[in-house]
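Bumping with the actual sequence this time:
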Amino acid sequence: PPRRFHRFILLNMLRLGIWAQANQQPLIEDVLTAGQSHDFELVMLGHEDDKVSTALSAALGGAACTDLRSLLGCPADVIWLAAPGILNTDGRSLVRESSTPVATSSPPPDDLTDLLREADGGMPAAFIPLMRSCHAYRSAATALESFGRIECVHVAMTASNHHTSRTALSLDAFDLITSLMGEPDDVWAANAGTTASHRPDFMPDQGHLMAALRYGPDRAASVTVSNGAGSWTRRILVLGEGGRLICTDEGASWTDVEGVIQEAPPPDTQINAGAVIAEQLIRIATGEGVPPVSLEAAIVQECARLSALTGQIEDPQHLRRMIGMAG
């Protein structure tokens, strides 16, 4: 493996640098608790406000910093950008210069057309926690291979606003759906509740979103996401030739069309956001990595944003032609 992974592999210790916002202390505590078996060591914790970074550092450990460049250069095995809005143009440039693997829990806050002009699609960091890369979903891969034709999918993801943004949840959900069913013919979406965005022409960071995706005359998918639900839950329901398959962060269950249980439900446990983030930070630090978010997911997310704004059905192929990415 690359030299930067040697220390972690030999000592079973993972050095972590984090850029966070003030309300993310409980989430970071959950990540550090989940990482105890790998001896997580928080070496640096950053925020642009000195008072916030000092307070977080005093509560959680690690040296405080107010400069992203310093964090990216600290002696860590992986850097986690937990706070939203960090991967702006300057932030993306700094991440590309880093010799340390970087993960982010928030998509870049820029126009999709501008992002796609960049060599890495405007995403120089690994996006986590990606459900497609979580342990439970990877374990369900064999069942999905044997499931037959997938005809209907529903993804529901809820969180508290200190876990993640609504934008990040919806990107995760659309990545999951497009990995299973490809790019849809039509997208319709609507905002619900009180939404807030740093710019009116961008996907709201807060609130609820519902979306419906049509795949020809006989297949469909839907999404419900919210970061105003108070607790962390990710659930996918798959319907089709194989019957019904349900997957959460805890595990998967599969019942065929005759009612026979092919895959038993997981134990009645609850995995929190910190645990799934810790798992993927370990994968990145050890060189296993997580898959990149698909272009199809980004296209569908932009269609959902436009549909929620205009109230109209959006065509992903039309959007592709508009941004010069027809496929």
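The tokens above came from a reply further down the thread. The CA atoms of residues 182 and 288 lie 25 Å apart.
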